[in-house]
Write a structure and sequence with these properties.
3 domains, 3-stranded antiparallel beta sheet, 12 helices, 53% helix
């Protein structure tokens, strides 16, 4: 019996076939069951021909061929009826449907946890006599957004390979790398080029980590990604309690300071008061503002002409502002200025500048003379912060604005 191969465990041979099949587990089980039946039939035939049980099993295994080649051929045969377009379409459908569902589930869960955390935080603030509130804003609030977005990417990466494998009639192991790489590239392109949103340094650094989390999770994706938290009540309640506790801490960390009263501001560096200039002293005028437009109206043409003779232009100026111990301080120069000729009814269009880091500003309407004399006709001290920078990740990192 020198032509009989060395002894080989049938289970080991079947395991090598299974490794090369690259099919979902149910289909792999079916194929292995069929192969086991063929091995039994072949071994029985060799026993009928006079071989003992051990040699009959060896002959049967040898007759089936190389397990790696056989597994690959059988896997391809099982997938032959699944055209590439259908497989890709199923994968895309699984990505979209589950991705949207996962996103909604995650944000609904986050909203519910956030509401509970806000109520607890508000109760704590009320208990210590504070009337402040929280809006989950600023860098700390955006850090929570990064955590939620990264969690969504990781969850999607953990679950999606199993769904794509089922659609493409592949094993999860066989699609992990492809799903992970494609998902990371596609997710990065969407984040960097398509999603425009209020951005700061925390989001600009944190959001790109989402597609990376997807890749890491996809490379470790299990064949059955079900969490089954509801079947483990203690684990589920512990996760909810941890999330609520983190939300309470976040709410307390992003408390909005209560409104300050009794500010003192010295505007002498910006301009004189109207009472100090004869053409304006003792007169009234209307100043109306709608968003970024201010209209200055004098009661009659005589006063308007007298004012324009001495102060030919009106400027809308946006000054950087800081408040320290109730004292208002202005920067050395306005960050934005717009001037127009002074007339009976003067309209000045102005806009707040946009910076990567918002700053507090004050807005003043100033009449300017040729000799440099300035008169503050209207002012809104501590108007608020400049608008939040908005754009894509590519804009943030590559643009100069």
């Amino acid at each position: 019996m020198s032509d009989v191969p060395a002894a080989q465990e049938r289970d080991a041979w079947l395991s090598r076939v299974a490794t090369s099949l690259d099919l979902p587990e149910p289909m792999t089980a079916e194929v292995l069951e069929e192969l086991a039946g063929h091995l039994d039939d072949a071994a029985g035939a060799y026993r009928d021909a006079g071989l003992d049980t051990v040699d009959a099993d060896r002959r049967a295994i040898r007759s089936m061929g190389d397990p790696a080649v056989l597994g690959r051929d059988l896997g391809n045969a099982r997938r032959r009826g699944r055209y590439l377009l259908a497989a890709v379409g199923g994968a895309v459908r699984a990505t979209i449907t589950f991705g949207v569902w996962a996103w909604l589930a995650l944000w609904i869960g986050a909203a519910a946890v956030g509401l509970i955390g806000m109520l607890i935080a508000s109760s704590l603030l009320h208990a210590v006599g504070s009337s402040t509130s929280s809006y989950f804003g600023g860098p700390v609030g955006n850090l929570a957004t990064v955590v939620i977005a990264t969690g969504w990417f990781a969850w999607l990466g953990r679950v999606l390979p199993a769904r794509v494998a089922k659609s493409a009639r592949r094993s999860v192991l066989g699609v992990r790398v492809a799903v992970g790489v494609v998902g990371m590239v596609a997710g990065s392109l969407v984040l960097w080029q398509s999603v425009s949103m209020p951005m700061d340094g925390v989001l600009a650094v944190g959001l790109p980590l989402g597609p990376v989390a997807f890749l890491v999770a996809a490379l470790r994706a299990p064949a059955d990604p079900s969490l089954r938290l509801l079947s483990r009540p203690l684990v589920f309640l512990g996760a909810v309690a941890a999330a609520v506790t983190a939300t309470v801490v976040l709410a307390l960390a992003t408390v909005t300071p209560s409104e300050l009263h009794g500010w003192e501001a010295n505007t002498a560096g910006i301009g004189k008061t109207p009472e100090d200039v004869a053409v304006f002293a003792g007169h009234t005028w209307d100043v109306n503002s709608w968003s970024d437009t201010t209209t200055l109206t004098f009661p009659d043409d005589t006063m308007a002409a007298a004012a324009a003779a001495q102060f030919p232009v009106v400027r809308a100026e946006v000054w950087p502002t800081t408040i320290v111990d109730g004292l208002v301080h202005f920067g050395p120069a306005p960050v934005f200025a717009r001037e127009v000729p002074l007339t009976t009814a003067t309209q000045v269009d102005w806009t707040l500048p946009v910076y990567r880091t918002p700053m507090m500003v004050s807005v003043f309407i100033v009449a300017a003379a040729r000799d440099g004399t300035r008169v503050v006709l209207d002012g809104r001290i501590a108007e608020g912060t400049t608008p939040v920078w908005r754009g894509t990740l590519a804009d943030w990192w590559l643009s100069s604005r």
